[in-house]
Structures are given as C-alpha cells and as structure tokens.
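We modelled the chain as a single entity of 139 amino acids. Its sequence is:
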Amino acid sequence: MSYLNNSTMMDVDFLPEHLIVIGGSYIGLEFAQMYRRFGSEVTIVEMAPRLIQREDEDIFEAIRTILEAEGIKMRLSAECIALEKRGDKVAVNVDCSIGDKTVIGSHALLAVGRVPNTEDLGLKSAGVTAGSTRLHPGR
C-alpha cells in the first residue's frame, strides 16, 4: 500500500483528486487546507473526537468552522483506521459512529506520529532540555 507523508508530499507534482489526510494535528491541517485550495477534494480522518487535541475547545471550533467553510470534510472519532487499495483508489476504513464506514479517495497522507527533530539545535549548550511536548529551561 502506497501512502504519502509530510516529506514525500513535498515531492508531489500532481493534484490529487481526493486527498484523505489521516491525522488532525497541525501538519495534517496545513496540507488539507493547502490541497483543498489547490482544488482537491479533501477529507480529514482523526481518531480523537476533535482536531488539534492540544488546543482549547474554542480554538478547535474556530478551526473546524474555517475548514468546513472551505469544503473540507472531517471524520472524527475514527478509532479503527485501516488502509486498503481498491483499483487505482485508496479506501480508508474509519469505523465512525455516524456516516459511511469507508472513505474512498485517490491518495492518502499519513500525518500522524511525527516527533520534533531537536537533536542538532544545540539545546544543551544553551542550557535547555527538550521534553516530550515542551522545552524546559535549565533542566
């Protein structure tokens, strides 16, 4: 099964007919909005009940309103995500409580599980230790 990620997506020289973005955090949302504005149909699939989990609920609602106004579809609470090749298309099983159980698109972008690359920033020499989600001065 072939899929795109945030690195390989930068090499795409065509417009996907229907891009399915798996992951509702910043990288996924940026690509979703970009490709929708280019003209692709876009569906975001997120396991959590809302996008950008680290932000407050009101931020999520504002972003959801903007994305929906641009025609981006969202499938939230998709707890059983699976990819399957169907001819020249990709099927993403989402197992959501409402709506179709499968989203069919032309391409899938996996925008999940990225970790910051801080190894070569020289943080130790600046007295900063990188944590899992934040930088902690002097630790």
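As a brief sanity check on the tokenised model: The two ends are 43 Å apart (CA to CA). The longest strand covers residues 18-22.
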